[in-house]
Design a protein that fits this description.
Elements: H1 22-42, E1 46-47, H2 50-57, E2 63-69, E3 73-78, E4 100-103, H3 107-120, E5 128-131, H4 136-161, E6 180-182, H5 199-213, H6 216-219, E7 228-232, H7 239-250, E8 254-258, H8 269-283, E9 287-292, H9 311-325, E10 333-339, H10 347-350, E11 357-360, H11 366-376, H12 388-393, H13 400-416, H14 424-436, H15 447-466, E12 472-477, E13 487-491, H16 500-510, H17 512-521, H18 529-545, H19 563-566, H20 574-601, H21 603-616, E14 618-620, H22 621-628
Parallel strand pairs: 1-4, 2-5, 7-10, 7-11, 8-9, 9-10
Antiparallel strand pairs: 2-3, 3-4, 6-8, 12-13, 12-14
Helix pairs in contact: 1-4, 5-7, 8-9, 11-13, 13-14, 15-16, 15-17, 15-21, 16-18, 16-20, 17-20, 18-20
Length: 634
């Protein structure tokens, strides 16, 4: 823990002291003014009605005088000798008056009513005096109090928009950037050693660090330092971590901000924050600006009317474009950004001169997953049976964030059972937990439904085992997890491209569950919803995107720019759409018949596996090899 300097004072907690409670001071001051106003208005008098005055007070003949103030308020003075009466016992004997007051509508009506009351009481008319007074406090409050309320409301809104009730908020800083500055004692400690699995990206990004550390190495040859680097990739691939590693390696001021923090409900705030951010970065140059999720402000302008972004977002984007490559000079400031939606970004933002480099981060392969596991397994107490190569091979398609989650989940499972170290079985359970969901041991399933589930999963296993291009099967389970009543775990081979036959085998393996239900029970159930969704998407991808259909031909309707998403019409006509639908339906039906034929051919083995599932609930690969034999390779 760092020691404080002698002149360093402890910062009071937010909301303590006067600095964090200006609004309460304003409110207390307003209440005080209002109380003074009420006190001045009543002046120690008792308010009565005109009827009470005429029926109760006038008959006592104790009224000394009556004063009408500003033709709207009547002040009543009680004679000194009559103040001892029971009716006036509340009156202070030392108070010369006025003692009562009431309001009137008009002077003429009041005079007539008073004259009539005097005649009924057979007493002379009371003398009425008229007086005009100016209530300075009321006059001041009448025009200052609304302004005070508006100012207080404005300060309250600005305070809430500025980050809650923390002390020291200045409403005039609302248009300034909220970027987190990391430098000095608050510098980033992440280095490239903490980033694994993206070696190609690290090679490119290391040059950015060299630019900041040794700019003369490049400028002496006439090269210019890149103005921007954008990291593009699926969620969890390490974009933000890589940006933090750049800041940690370069030891330069690092301004970190999210794209959504630029846009507020107030017009012009986003552009103002962009200007302030670049101004602060230039003052600390060489420096790095990192904008996470830049698609929040960098979406393509224009497009369909219904999809058009608002003017505030566009003005923020325009200001960002100007700052990055306008008439101003941005020497020594490098902008880094991250997004997983590069298809929706404006083309002006991605052109050279703004983001000179686009670094794509893909999902890690097996070797990269092994490196990522090595990083995340460092803080864990591992058992001797943990094999990193096995973990890397059995987690295809997992991102770096997924792998970190697996390691943490495995440690939690081991701690739950009070183990001394994390074992390989804990990692298997963590993978099952993340992929399929939490095991539901208390879910009640009837014997009939359990039989259907066992046949369904056995159908998937049988079809995938005998289809040469289907994924390799690891285990089959009928234990309910998450929303699934059963599951089959596969070990997909990592292909760069897929052939038509590989697609067809995948479709057939996915349809194996429904086909098995029809073969054994002569009816189908709703348990194949997820399978049918996958099959439909895969079939449409083959026909409409990859050009793997003879009738459609070598045509692809895939749009990598994302413009089709903003258009109101499809890129093909109704006749083509009808052909696509017919070909997809034919493709799925042909695959379904092929799957049924395959399962009928191996019906006895399918039934054996279903019975074993009902007995053990989880069947591993060794048991599958005992039923089906060794699996052939494609």
């Amino acid at each position: 823990m760092a020691e404080k300097e002698p002149n360093e004072q402890e910062t009071p907690p937010a909301g303590s002291g006067f600095k964090g409670n200006f609004l309460w001071i304003y409110l207390a001051f307003a209440i005080l003014l209002y109380m003074l106003y009420l006190r001045g208005a009543s002046g120690g008098m008792e308010e009565i009605s005109q009827n009470h005055f005429e029926s109760e007070i006038m008959p006592t003949r104790a009224v000394d005088k009556i004063v009408v103030v500003n033709r709207e308020r009547v002040l009543v003075y009680i004679a000194e000798e009559a103040r001892g009466l029971k009716l006036f016992e509340k009156i202070d004997q030392n108070n010369a008056g006025p003692h009562f007051f009431f309001n009137i509508g008009s002077v003429e009506a009041f005079e007539n009513s008073l004259k009539t009351a005097a005649e009924k009481l057979d007493m002379p008319p009371l003398e009425i005096k008229y007086k005009t007074e100016v209530n300075w406090l009321q006059s001041i409050l009448s025009w200052t109090l609304p302004f005070l309320l508006l100012i207080g409301l404005w300060l309250f809104i600005m305070r809430r928009a500025g980050g809650g009730a923390g002390g020291g908020f200045n409403p005039f800083d609302f248009g300034k950037s909220r970027a987190t500055v990391m430098e000095g004692a608050n510098r980033v400690l992440v280095t490239f050693d903490d980033v694994a699995g993206i070696e190609e990206a690290k090679v490119e990004i290391r040059e950015i660090v060299d630019f900041l550390k040794n700019p003369e190495r490049y400028t002496r040859l006439g090269a210019k330092i890149p103005k921007g680097v954008i990291l593009i990739g699926p969620p969890g691939t390490g974009k933000t971590l890589l940006a933090r590693a750049v800041a940690g390696e370069a030891q330069a001021p690092f301004f970190s901000i999210s794209g959504s923090e630029f846009v507020e409900m107030f017009v012009g705030v986003g552009a103002s924050r962009v200007r302030d951010l670049f101004k602060r970065a230039k003052e600390r140059a060489p420096s790095i600006i990192f904008i996470d999720e830049i698609d929040a402000i960098g979406r393509a302008r224009g497009g369909a009317v219904s999809m058009r972004t608002n003017d505030e977002r566009e003005s923020t984007l325009n200001q960002l474009l100007t700052e990055m490559d306008g008439f101003g000079v941005n020497s020594g400031v490098i902008v880094m950004a991250a997004t997983n939606r590069a298809d929706v970004l404006d083309r002006a933002l991605l052109r050279p001169g703004r983001f000179d480099r686009q670094i794509y981060l893909e999902l890690p392969n097996q070797a990269e997953r092994r490196a990522i596991f090595t990083v995340h397994l460092r803080p864990l107490h591992l058992s001797d049976d943990v094999n990193i190569d096995t973990l890397a091979s059995q987690t295809p398609g997992f991102s770096g964030a997924d792998i970190a989650n697996i390691c943490n989940e495995a440690a939690l499972i081991a701690a739950r059972y009070e183990k001394a170290s994390v074992e390989m079985a804990d990692f298997y359970s963590a993978v099952d937990r993340i992929v399929a969901g939490l095991e539901k041991k208390t879910k009640i399933i009837s014997a009939r439904e359990k039989r259907v589930i066992a046949v369904h999963e056995a159908g998937h296993a049988t079809a995938s085992w005998f289809l040469p291009h289907a994924d390799s099967l690891l285990k089959v389970s009928i234990v309910p997890r998450g929303k699934a009543l059963g599951a089959a775990w596969y070990l997909p081979e990592e292909h760069t491209i897929y052939t038509t036959q590989q697609f067809l085998d995948r479709i057939c393996a996915t349809l194996g569950g429904r086909a098995a239900e029809e073969i054994f029970f002569n009816e189908i159930s709703s348990g194949a919803l997820d399978d049918l969704e996958k099959v439909t998407k895969l079939a449409y991808t083959m026909v409409a995107y990859y050009g793997l259909n003879d009738k459609i031909g070598n045509i692809s309707f895939y749009d990598s720019t994302g413009q089709y998403e903003q258009a109101l019409q499809k890129p093909y006509g109704e006749q083509t759409a009808q052909i696509i639908d017919e070909e997809v339906r034919l493709l799925v039906e042909t695959s379904y018949q092929r799957t049924k034929a395959l399962l009928n051919q191996h019906r006895d083995k399918l039934e054996t596996l279903a019975d074993l599932l009902l007995q053990k609930e989880v069947v591993m690969r060794e048991d599958l090899e005992g039923i089906f034999g060794m699996r052939g390779r494609a």
